[in-house]
Specification:
The complex is a heterodimer. Chain A has helices spanning 7-17, 32-43, 57-69, 80-85, 87-95, 120-123, 138-153, 182-188, 212-227, 229-244, 269-282, 300-307, 328-339, 360-371; strands at 2-6, 22-25, 50-53, 74-78, 101-106, 131-134, 161-166, 174-178, 251-254, 261-265, 288-292, 294-296, 312-317, 345-350, 391-392. Chain A is α/β, with parallel strands linked by helices. In chain A, the strands form three sheets. A seven-stranded mixed beta sheet of chain A has the order 3-2-4-5-7-6-12, sandwiched between helices. Chain A has a six-stranded mixed beta sheet with strand order 9-11-10-13-14-15, sandwiched between helices. In chain A, strand 13 (312-317), helix 13 (328-339) and strand 14 (345-350) form a beta-alpha-beta unit. In chain A, helix 12 (300-307) crosses helix 13 (328-339). The N and C termini of chain A lie far apart (49 Å). Chain B has helices at 50-54, 80-84, and strands at residues 36-40, 60-62, 68-70, 90-94. In chain B, the strands form two sheets. Chain B has a two-stranded antiparallel sheet with strand order 1-4. Chain B is 10% helix and 16% strand. Chain B has a domain at 29-94: 2-Layer Sandwich (Alpha-Beta Plaits), CATH 3.30.70. The longest helix of chain B is centred in the middle third of the chain and has 5 residues, at 50-54. Classes of the chains: A alpha/beta, B alpha+beta. The interface between A and B is medium-sized, with 23 and 17 residues.
Chain lengths: 397, 97
């Protein structure tokens, strides 16, 4: 049975269903309702977990590392500046191979200060060695948080996982969501059995230093772990789909098989793109959507399978490249097209920065622009913008 | 460590580089970093132990006669002991090997 519930509250209920044992978090908009609700659940005795209140996100993730190293199933959540304050600790969590799960309510980075949604926070942590999943709606948030623990704690993985949900667009909306029962989640997600734990009776050293003779091997081993997590992620998604009847795959497609022009995008914006595609169908225009649900590890061969033979690939990014030629999602798609010899024309549109509304009509305009081939290089003719290989939608010029 | 660090292959490392043996840092002899070594003038030393207290590497120990000296396997030659020694009984000298 579905319940109308705010997605943030649903996210904390999902963490409760996963029987988290330790939470350390610092409130920040738009993540606040997630951690507030968890603190209520713990205070009311509905969730048997340790809730550590801390003075910053740097401390929040540090406390999570301690809890996870001691063998507890650990959860946290943050947004934007909070995620960047965690930055150095992110790499420690992944390097120590601790299966912490973090919900990130994606929000634009200051400055200028913005509390609204885009992906600049998560993209700045792109290469921190965390598995990164993106959600499109509230149901996906609940299911993905439960799956994230199973992925993270698998002995073949042992890596932290970020579950990304768009701030406000997802975190603050009320959606009808179906919750699995506690018995069902328990059957899916067994008790966490850590490989190593900090325990005075069985002492080990975690986080020792590595000299130049060892650092390369250590990082190579970590990279193999995230690469090799891909088949496990697929396995967990399939198992969840079988048990709960909602189909999850690392990449979802919408009308993509029969279209030679496709959008590639991540997160809640996919719903607007689908609306745009439905509208285009009425005008006999065929356009598809490839939804990337898993960004790290990047599922390149699976995407290549879908993208081969396409004429136009329109990559939607939600963060500025900071002086690079393209947005972060485009760079991955461009790399894979090169590797798999996909000869499609590639277009990069940056949309929805700092909460700017992006309407289905905007995607129809992008499609028309791509189809008319008017814009291959967005600012052709303007000498000063030759490195800018993308177009920003809605910017007033 | 069971073998020298430069012989480990990536797949031989523990998950997360966890070290299961306790106190393995003893095996890493940091004395090789040294260019100066402390020398005690026992005629000036009053056996106060300030050098022992301040040594950041716990490389200084007390001998049976009560005077102090450095374990050169671990002394990095930082000179903090000589700096802190108020009777000025410690001199840093070129470490000739």
């Amino acid at each position: 049975m579905k319940r109308g519930i705010e997605v943030s509250i649903a996210a904390s209920e999902a963490a409760k269903l996963a029987r988290v044992e330790a939470i350390a978090a610092y409130p920040i908009t738009p993540q606040t309702h997630i951690v507030e609700h968890l603190s209520e659940l713990v205070a009311n005795g509905e969730l048997d977990a340790v809730y550590v209140t801390v003075e910053s996100e740097h401390s929040a993730l540090s406390a999570c590392i301690g809890a996870s190293a001691a063998g507890a199933r650990t959860f946290t959540s943050t947004s934007a500046q909070g995620l960047e304050l965690m930055h150095e600790i992110l790499f420690i969590a992944s390097g120590l191979r601790l299966p912490i799960v973090m919900a990130v309510a994606n929000r634009a980075l200051s400055s200028p200060l913005s509390i609204w949604n885009d992906h600049s926070d998560v993209m700045a942590t792109r290469d921190a060695g965390w598995i990164q999943l993106f959600c499109e709606n509230g149901q996906e948030v609940v299911d993905t948080i439960i799956m994230a623990f199973k992925i993270a704690e698998d002995r073949r993985v042992l890596l932290p996982v970020m579950v990304n949900l768009d701030g406000f667009q997802l975190s603050h909306v009320v959606e009808p969501i179906e919750f699995p029962s506690q018995e069902e989640v328990d059957a899916f997600l067994p008790e966490y059995k850590p490989l190593y734990t900090l325990h005075p009776d069985r002492p080990v050293t975690m986080g020792a230093y590595a000299t130049p003779e060892l650092y390369t091997e250590a990082k190579y081993a970590q990279e193999q772990a995230i690469i090799n997590s891909l088949p496990v992620i697929k396995e967990v998604l399939s198992e969840y789909s079988r048990m709960f009847g909602r189909r999850y795959r690392i990449i979802e497609i919408y009308n993509a098989e029969k279209s030679d022009t496709v959008f590639v995008a991540m997160g809640s914006i996919n719903e607007n793109i689908m609306t745009a595609i439905d509208g285009m169908k009425k005008n006999k225009n065929s356009c598809g959507l490839v939804k990337v649900r898993l960004f790290r590890p990047f599922p390149h061969s699976e995407l290549a399978e879908i993208l081969k033979g396409k004429k136009n690939i329109i990559v939607v990014d939600r963060a500025m490249p900071g002086g690079g030629m393209n947005g972060p999602v485009f760079n991955e798609i461009s790399s894979l097209c090169n590797r798999y010899n996909i000869k499609a024309k590639l277009f990069n549109y940056i949309v929805g920065l700092g909460g700017r509304d992006v309407l289905p009509e905007d995607f129809v305009s992008i499609y028309d622009e791509v189809k008319s081939s008017k814009v291959v290089r967005p600012l052709k003719g303007k000498k000063e913008a030759t490195t800018q290989n993308y177009k920003v939608i809605g910017v007033r010029e | 460590m069971a073998k020298p660090m430069e012989e480990y292959k990536w797949h031989e490392l523990n998950v997360g580089c966890v070290i299961e043996e306790v106190g393995s840092s003893r095996e890493y002899k940091t004395g090789g970093w040294r260019s100066l070594r402390p020398v005690w003038d026992e005629s000036k030393c009053i056996k106060c132990g300030v050098c022992w207290l301040f040594c950041p590497d716990a490389a200084i120990y007390q001998k049976e006669d009560g005077y102090f000296t450095a374990n050169l396997n671990y002394c990095k030659g930082c000179g903090i002991c000589a700096h802190e020694c108020w009777p000025m009984a410690i001199k840093m000298v070129e470490d000739e090997k």
